[in-house]
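Co-fold these.
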Amino acid sequence: MSGLYAVLEIGTTRTVLAAAEPSAGDRMKVVRYACIPSAGVRKSQILGIGKAAQSVKSVLRAVERGGEADDALTIGNAFLVATGRHVKADPYQGVVQVEGARVGNADIEAAVRSSRTMPLPKDRELLDIADRTYSLDSLCGITSPRGMSGRILRLDTLQIHADANRLNDARTAAGEAHLELRDPLFAPTCAAEAVTSEVERRDGVLVLDFGGGSTGYAAYAGGCLCAAGAIGVGGDHVTNDIAHAFQTTYAQAEILKKEEACAMPGSGDRRVTLRGDSPLMAARTLSRNAIDTVVNARMKELLTVLGDAIGDGDLLQHMRAGVVATGGGSALKGLFPLVESVFGLPVRAGKPLYVDGFENEPNPASLAAVAGALSYAHRNYEQKSVLENLIKGIFGK
Amino acid sequence: MNENTSPLLLVGVGGAGCSLAATIARQPRVDAATLLADSDASAARPAGLPFVLLGGDRLAGRGTGGDMVLGRLAAEDSSASVAERLQGVRLAVVAAGLGGGTGGGSAPEIVSQITSFGIPAIAFATMPFSFEGDDRRQKAQRAAVALEEAADATVVLPLEALAGGRDATIDEAMAKAAESFSSAVSLFWRMLGRPGYIKIDIERARRVISGAGRGRFAAASGARGEGRAAAALDMLARSPLLSAQLAKPRRILCGILAGDDLTLRETGEIAEGVRDLFGRSATFDLATVNDEESFGGQISVAALAFESSGDPAAADGGAQERKLRSRQQARRGRRASSPLALSPQGRGRFNNVEPTVWNGEDLDIPTFIRRNISLDL
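Predicted complex below.
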């Protein structure tokens, strides 16, 4: 199987491994994928290497043995989809003096090289650099400066970096499962890659990736990434709030969240029956309105915090293509009208646009980051050779 | 109908709390009122003591079945009955066993009702034995946090420490724990209810207890003969209840309970010994109870150490009382909204995980708690 790309996501709620190959045009076709519940992960960070490694082993086994017996697949390496509040994005500017009277290719390359020299502390690791626009002397917002006249050429970038220790924990967990991890990719920007068009990114679009342990964001305007990051609050917090408010187990709270809760109260009160976790626990009823109140408070606060984090005052006003919601948490009932009311922007679900194979997934938006990572990896990285995959597969285990 | 004539009220909540309050109420010569509150109408309790059946229509006297939410709702349903008993009360002592539905769910709610009237409340509570299981222990821990939020001062005593040795049968351990709990609270109670030459009267006790926070407690009973002061101190120092650490106590309340033969030297020896035991930097309050009938020929010592030095304004008149109330409300508000409060209330599965702090708020604590959003359950 040539040209195979694999992507691993060790999420708070589940661990996903997907393998895909390029198909027509820039599209990717998922050959095989598996999702299993995660263990040892809280707020998008690994807290138990052994448990996380076990999750990786299980998902790897599920993918490799998932097909027909004569169609066994060996996956030796995978790109890592990473997120969490340890991921930050900082602007950085590459600056060069234009050599001749006009900007040439060499000047542009020098500006790009200069923009890749942002100093980072030892415990930070670069995930991605998003080039924004060039400026020539006092003229800003230039997309292609070649041939223009000026003296000082600058390239504005947004540099996304993460806690190197957290990434190393993922590498260790994957390593214990005999899976080599290639470069880490940032989940929200990957999700944006999968679910938005170039036109939307030019018009301005905000992608919100609602995960179990954290919520990521990526804001685009003028075709450039303007802001990105993650807040350490996710669907797990909603579950925790419900469990605390109604003195339920986490399993019961999870069921209430998925089946009953609505982030936008006002659908009328009624009693919701909560079954006991065991035959010894009697069923009881809860107010649907009270559940919604708890969830609404949490989600409204999260959206307000996201608005503050995206910052830059009027950046949200430039999101003319609205908001696209991805991640497992985007399935929460009433979330879209709440996002609309908080941001004053239209919202749609983020189904992967350029990757085939996730159609049967109940909530395809939950796999947006994985889908985007597959596309991104294909476009930006050479695939490792089949031979290398096989060698890893045979001798690495 | 309020029948209270004493400014001191002992409230027993739930099975264990009622049993304790009833035991103490039987003791002679204590000038105090007692109130029993339980959701289980069938539980045995002595006649003649005022009783409030919690959650009348909701539970119909059948108890909570271990459900703390039902316990809380039951106490809310019966708030008027509790309030009737609070007229004239200046200080309340609430006793409960944590881990069940009524003790864990109703006790914090009843304490809240009491303090909302500007009455300082100290809660004595027991934590279940470890063999009672994780679920009961976790419930008890949640209830202890809720009690700390509601009460001015809280003393939580693990049953394991109260029961003493591990070789006792379960029945013996339970009986011993109940007896130790009863005798410990009883000593404190008598210290307030029957002042001696050095008084801790109600107003002074209000001042000590208001806003005192978490406390630890140790008691020594019945030291006799020559060197009885030293023996009492030795018993106090070896009390397993002291094993629960309290960082730097700010206030110590010490009661010496004896007959008429208590000497000045013995009083001084015990006072110094207790200060050595708990820390000399803390504010020290001493009380003696001279009761020849109960303590003739012996010395008992009860010592309470609190994490906070209390509220000096609490013992003054009406204006001060309003001030106290607003301060208490503000304190509760702070506790509810403060992001970095010591209490881990609501962090649940995010305990032991680095908190998500945004603009000074710990976002791991449920939003509805930090925003003081009330829920119509």
